[in-house]
Amino acid sequence: YHIGQLYMICKHCEVETSKEDGVEVVRNEPVTNENGVVGQLTEKRLYLSSRLPAWMRSLIPNVFYITEKATNFYPYTTTEYTCSFLPRFSIVVETRYEDNNGTTDNCHQLSSDDLAARKLEYLDIAIEPVPAYKYKESEDPCKFKSEKTGRGPLMPGWREYTKPIMCAYKTIRVRFEVWGFQTRVEDFAQRAVRDILTLAHRQAFTWMDEWYGMTLEQVREYEREMFHRTNKKVLPTSASMTINTSSD
């Protein structure tokens, strides 16, 4: 899954990017944590103006971007989203990956207060709906069968018998401290993150034959190529970025 995750992220960014909206990759470089473990730090700018609801566009400038900073120490990753003109807005996503079907009750070891406030949801990539304009039959896990592995399609009850299986446990915290809009924006952000996660993991599964068998070095080279293509769509030709990847 580590290979599939990296492949999916960079291909998804390139597919979703146009001259009007999309993803600019600012940094993509190795990083070492306090325990000496080497991972990857990626910083992106997400240009999303045309994709926001009208009520939200009325609150923001015509051109804006959200900064995404992600550290990947697989099987643990953290991603933070901030907005420069909204200092009291942030989304923090913590993820742990485990080789089970969702049976760990408190994967992130949350405190008793956090557990009491937690809203627990299960996302099944086979049946979770995606926006109609995002649906593609080729990316439907219920219709996809891998030629390389024989996996799929995902039939009802697949989580109970499919091997191998992996669960991504995510804790999502949204903060928007603006009176009158806090609940509305936080609810919108939670729904948006849910849609993104569902689509991304459906793609990771149905793109399996594209990434299965790749080494980490090969997927990092693919990452460099795709991020370069993505930046060319949204940036002038004189712009540059830092892409310094390594195997981790």
TrEMBL record:
GO terms for molecular function: phosphatidylinositol binding; phosphatidylinositol transfer activity. One of its GO terms (cellular component) is cell periphery. Residues 1-226 form the Phosphatidylinositol transfer protein N-terminal domain. Transmembrane segments: none annotated. Pfam families: IP_trans. It comes from the Eukaryota. InterPro entries: PI_transfer, PI_transfer_N, START-like_dom_sf. This is Phosphatidylinositol transfer protein N-terminal domain-containing protein.
